[in-house]
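hey so i finaly got around to running the thing on Sulfotransferase from Astyanax mexicanus. pasting the sequence first so u can double check i didnt mess up the copy paste, my clipboard has been acting weird all day
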Amino acid sequence: MEYSPLCPAAHATPLPPVRNKLLVLCVMLSLWAYTLYCCIGYCSTAPGLPGLSADSRETPSPRALSTELPNGDSGGFGEPDGGSSNRVEEWDEGRTLNDSETKKLPQAIIIGVKKGGTRALLEFLRLHPDIRAVGAEPHFFDRNYEKGLEWYRDLMPKSLEGQITMEKTPSYFVTKEVPGRIYAMSKDTKLIVVVRDPVTRAISDYTQTRSKKPDIPSFESLTFKNSTAGLIDATWSALQIGMYARHLERWLRFFPINQILFVSGERLITDPAGEMARVQDFLGLRRVVTDKYFHFNPAKGFPCLKKPESNSKPHCLGKTKGRTHPNIHPDVIQQLRDFYKPFNKKFYHMTRQDFGWD
Ligand SMILES: Nc1ncnc2c1ncn2[C@@H]1O[C@H](COP(=O)(O)OS(=O)(=O)O)[C@@H](OP(=O)(O)O)[C@H]1O
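ok and heres what it spat out for the 3d tokens, dont ask me to read them lol
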């Protein structure tokens, strides 16, 4: 028997009855201490508490670590900002990992536009078994490029051969360096842009900024350089983003138009299954995400997600999606419509799609 620091008498032989009892007590005490140690999670070899699997003790991946997402964006349905739904999924990932799963650079990216409906599209796509997508916005090609492709790859979830890795960062569409950088990663990257009426998009953008900085000037005053002359301030980012044709020109220097899919932000709300059919076709996927997955919530005014053939409550996007917009003076709206008309016309021509904004 080895010397035990807890039980100094344990090595002595032969043992008188009192020492015997002391020894038994020491052994029991040690066993009890060890069990407690294991139960609180420090023991790696013994089983933990019933119901707490070894997987659930794995270190979460970078995605799970980000709870506050850029842009005040939501990381998942039903949670205000990067809520627990993401983290639950991380644990699921832990359970299903196997040797044939590896982290891959994205083969498809949702590149824009801000406030177009990019979160909804990504969440809809994540229902597809052949899509693995990072929930948070990596902002690799605009803000984190110097961190390198291995940093970027490491953000991605593990995927099986044949599954498509995806991410969404809406600011890519309007950042001039991004097309060349994505091309340098892979000229075959499939690109998806969710576009929305640029006037409504600008108001949505303004509404988001105002939700964080309530003291900003009115939408009307930010719209004009000179309101009496009716001179629109095209340098205001909320307005600049909506000049889609200009931004698209930069992408077309690197990618053919048929490598870019333009999703209508409006139809993503009124006919999510129809837009999802187009997206799945574009990505070469089976049409798995169909109308069975959508339930229109009249109170929210948006489609929410449901499990087909299930009575469970549909999950809607968090409250940062579908904010109430301020009322903007109709004259200002009209002036913005006139401002965007030539840009929209050109955009319809370039994409061979009429989005019906005019
Ligand atoms: N299903 C569903 N549920 C909720 N919201 C939906 C949905 N589909 C599209 N939208 C519209 O998405 C708008 C937000 O766009 P983004 O997700 O691209 O915003 S962000 O750029 O990531 O901040 C958001 O804009 P606002 O209505 O202005 O908040 C919505 O109109």
